[in-house]
Amino acid sequence: MENDEAYKLLVSPRWLGAVDTSGAEPVIPDIPGAASERCAEARDMRLGEVQMGERALIVGAGLMGIKTADSLIGKGRTVTVVEEMDHSTVLPLTSHGYYLHGLLRKCGKLLLETIVKEVTGKGTILIGRDREWEIEADTVVWAVESRPKIKVRGAADRAGDDVELLVTPSSPEGFWRRYTRDTRLP
Length: 186
What we know:
Blueprint: H1 2-10, E1 24-26, E2 39-41, H2 42-46, E3 55-59, H3 63-74, E4 78-83, H4 95-107, E5 108-112, E6 115-119, E7 123-127, E8 132-136, E9 139-142, E10 146-148, H5 152-159, H6 172-182
Parallel strand pairs: 2-9, 3-4, 3-9, 4-5
Antiparallel strand pairs: 1-10, 6-7, 7-8
């Protein structure tokens, strides 16, 4: 019945409409070389707007990073994914994660607790647990977090509109869980 409740809430007269805030820009770290021609955003690479080299370093092991790795491995590229956390947010326990992590282990590299210090002329300088090293990469792909291009909540507040922020609800149930955790029903 949770689905029915979420649907009722979504179509209730309380809401005037929905705002799609999918327009976003990546939060690329301010490091030397990050804006060089050899660097690309994952969304541009996925849309085919970037000419990829044979060796790619993907920064970020979230869904976009792992899916980007899958796409590049499928095109015969050598792929290394770096993630500053000690785990990928794409869990290998799910069928999708199991497939993607397995492919990456077989055909690429996943370096956890690793950050990019600098993008150089022939690759990147990485910092890991207790070492610093350089790897060769023709292309550095930023698959990092994004921020909205416009401040939707601030604009709505200034206009006097009631706004609820949702973080990627994948279903009415996801919306319902998020909504009921943060507020009470009217």
